[in-house]
Amino acid sequence: MSLWQSFRNLQPRTRIFIGVGVMAYSAFGLMLSRRVERKFGMVPTEQDHEELRRALPKIRAVDVDGE
Q1: By CB neighbour count within 10 A (0-12 exposed, 13-18 middle, 19+ buried), where does 43 fall?
Q2: Cα 14 to chain center, whole Å?
Q3: Does the model's pTM come out above 0.85?
Q4: Angle CA(55)–CA(61)–CA(65) in degrees, nearest 5?
């Protein structure tokens, strides 16, 4: 039996608790990571932001005539 099937066989209430627990764990990790970054001086600089902006692809809309 696969992991997904085992999860689906659990009672709905248990699946809800597992889902909420995973979301809470993730939210806690996001909050904690910001504090750790600040504590160790790993906050991005303006130069880092500019490098990221240059690295991201640009999306352009193109009008197609004839349809």
Answers
A1: exposed
A2: 24
A3: no
A4: 150
CA distance 29 to 33: 6
Per-range mean pLDDT, top range of 21-25, 35-39, 41-45: 21-25
Q: What are the pLDDT digits (tens) for 47-63?
A: 999 999 999 998 888 88
Token duo for residue 45: 């600089």
Distance CA 41, CA 38 (A): 5
Scanning the structure block, which residue is given the tokens 């990571």?
Answer: 33
Could you tell me which residues come within 8 angstroms of residue 10 by beta carbon, excluding any fewer than 6 positions away? 18
Q: Which residues contact 15 (CB under 8 A, 6 or more apart)?
A: 7, 8
